[in-house]
Specification:
Helix 3 crosses helix 6 and helix 6 packs across helix 10. About 2% of the residues have low confidence. The chain has 348 residues and is α/β, with parallel strands linked by helices. Helix content is 66%, strand content 7%. The chain is elongated and about 85 Å long.
Length: 348
């Protein structure tokens, strides 16, 4: 059974290209002149437009046509095979691509009339531990796809999943607007993606035992291992801390949302009045309710305030806005028969 799993079901060498073909395939992807340069610049502008207009489909298209992943794969491969010349060329081309990406994105965002940050841009400013997992396993799938005789849709899928282009364009947005709150987190996200794609490539090429340089100094081998371990530590710690922070923050927000939902449905909503929206101000510890329907008396509102502690909202003040009168009340009443919905609770 074990032999079947090892040599049959999970045999990664059965459809593998020979070492020379793999080498040629990876080296050819590093060449950065003519068409690849033009494609890169087009991808940069397309991604910037997608981020600027909040269009997910356009962003995905930019990731598909971008050649940004090729030198990263080449760097991981060159480290695994101790190919110093390829490592130098891949690193140089990668640096040139980064510079072109930053220039293109910065120019676009400096000229665009849409200055507001969209949700797609903001989404690239919160790197976490999960981005490392995506980049590593995406990079693993990528190098597996590259080393197969029969090409599949793995590479386009990896390009979308690892999302190298959007964070780089987000850095360009931060540069154009002079906003480090976008520059630093997006640059860190890009670094996470690039490093762990390279690390996955390195690990898998080692596993395949691809052709290596004939003479490899033990000192160089030790320096390489130390460099990889140091890089993993330096990149992983901030991402892990961010993941913990995001998880705790998400749990607290969900808990607060549940408390507000319980309070509004039990103490505020009735057959004649409905909360259209609940807005929570965390800094002021204030809960604002926008109501439609029958107007509550001051005494009724005071009772609501007294009952807030019963729903875990002690310390919060209550602000009731009920001058929103409309003939559409019956419509809202029917929509909200199940009580206030999570989408109608906003935390600011």
């Amino acid at each position: 059974m074990i032999d079947y799993l090892k040599n049959g079901l999970f045999n990664i060498r059965s459809d593998q290209m020979d070492a020379d073909a793999i080498h040629e395939s990876i080296v050819s992807g590093v060449k950065l002149k003519g068409a690849p340069l033009i494609i890169l610049f087009c991808a940069i502008i397309v991604a910037s437009v997608g981020l600027n207009t909040n269009s997910t489909a356009v962003i995905i298209g930019a990731m598909l046509i971008s050649p940004l992943m090729n030198p990263i794969i080449a760097m991981g491969y060159s480290l695994a095979t101790y190919d110093g010349l390829l490592l130098r060329n891949a690193a140089l081309n990668f640096l040139i691509q980064i510079i072109i990406a930053l220039i293109g994105a910065s120019i676009y965002f400096a000229l665009t009339p849409i200055r507001e940050a969209t949700s797609e841009l903001i989404a690239r400013t919160g790197p976490s531990f999960f981005d490392m997992l995506i980049a590593f396993f995406g990079g693993t799938a990528g190098i597996i796809g590259i080393t197969r005789k029969e090409k599949t849709n793995v590479i386009p899928g990896v390009a979308i999943a690892t999302a190298l282009m959007p964070p780089m364009c987000t850095v360009g947005y931060g540069i154009a607007n002079g906003n480090p709150d976008y520059i630093l987190p997006a640059a860190y996200l890009f670094l996470i993606n690039a490093f762990f794609i390279m690390l996955a490539t390195f690990a898998f090429c080692k596993l395949l035992q691809l052709k290596q340089a004939e003479v490899v100094k033990e000192r160089f081998n030790m320096m390489l291992k130390r460099g990889i371990i140091t890089g993993m530590i330096l990149i992983t710690i901030p991402a892990a801390v961010s993941a913990v922070y995001v998880s705790i923050d998400s749990i607290l927000e969900n808990n607060l949302t549940s408390k507000v939902e319980s309070f509004v449905n039990a103490e505020v909503n009735s057959s004649t009045a409905t909360a259209m929206r609940a807005t929570i101000d965390l800094d002021r510890k204030n809960l604002r309710l926008d109501l439609i329907g029958e107007v509550y008396t001051p005494e009724q509102i005071e009772t609501m305030k007294e009952n807030m502690a019963d729903h875990g909202l002690e310390g919060y003040t209550l602000e009731v806005v009920q001058d929103i009168r409309t003939s559409l009340f019956n419509y809202f009443e029917n929509v909200n028969k199940a009580g206030i919905l999570e989408g109608e609770i906003v935390i600011v």
